[in-house]
Amino acid sequence: MHKLLLVSLLTFSFVAHSKSRVDSSGYGSCSFLCDNIPDDNHVMHSMGQASLPTLNSTKLSILSWNIYKGRKSEYRKAFTAMAKGRDLIMLSEATTGSPVSDSFKAITGWEWHLAASFNMKNDIAAGTVLGSAARPSNVHYYRTKDIEPFVKSPKATVLAYYAIPGSSKKLLAISIHGINWDGDEALERQLNMILPEIKAHNGPVVFAGDFNTKNPSRVALTKRILGTAGLKQVPWENPLKKKQLDDAFTRGMSIRRARLVHDWVDKGSDHPAIDLQVELTDL
After folding, report:
1. Which terminus of the chain is more exposed, N or C, with fewer CB under 10 A?
2. CATH code at position 219
């Protein structure tokens, strides 16, 4: 487990804490889109400045989406449409490069934090993201020791705490990209790394993203592990009949809507987006 505290930055550009070094991560070389893997001190990247000290309300509109690194032809149009009116945005396969960073810049008064699984060419980091107009605290990451069989990179998960208006408690938000390993053991290890922090948190939790739950055993495993911390899978209005890679688990909130949005599949991403409307109850 690796953790890294962040401070809010005043610029509208992604900033790594210093330039990453390819030979110090301990993971070795990688392949495909991965140019190098950052060491522990260069996983986190920040962009923008939050305009609010707390979440705007106890009723939240949340978007979770694997955005395919912004490589689809209508990504910008899709993201603009999907991001409108949100309180919290949770992404996987995001990057610090254009057009993804440009789409973040277009939303004023927001703060974004990316945990890099790997760096592509030109020091463009790729990984999971949390974004909100609310200023987060204790932003950090967990990174798997296991590596992907094809890209040969680890998977990073980003976590942050958001103050809740009228409450001393905070919302714990976790954005994940599950490791796509042949067996289930690597995903189990990935979830178990984060589990103690979820159990220790006194307040509501939203845990969403591309879990890579590509078979029934992975779905059952995820439910079982997260269930030990009181998290439940959201009641989907339109679950996929076959494998559903994207999912969401919550605790301490009521679910007003949980649906998959397929409007931009193939044009904006290769994944449907998750549209969550929730009301915090553990206050």
Report:
1. N
2. 3.60.10.10
DSSP 102-158: HHHHTSTT-EEEEEEEEE-GGG-EEEEEEEESBPEEEEEEEE-SS--TTT----EEE
Task: Tell me how far the alpha carbon of residue 47 is from its chain's centroid.
Answer: 15
What are the tens digits of pLDDT across the range 124-163? 999 999 999 999 999 999 999 999 988 999 999 999 999 9
pLDDT on residue 13? 59
H-run or E-run covering 46: strand 44-48
Residue 215 lies in a domain: yes
Percent helix, strand, coil in the chain, to 5, is: 20, 35, 45
Query: pTM of the prediction?
Result: 0.93
Burial-class residue 41 by CB neighbours within 10 Å (0-12, 13-18, 19+): middle
The total domain count for the chain is: 1
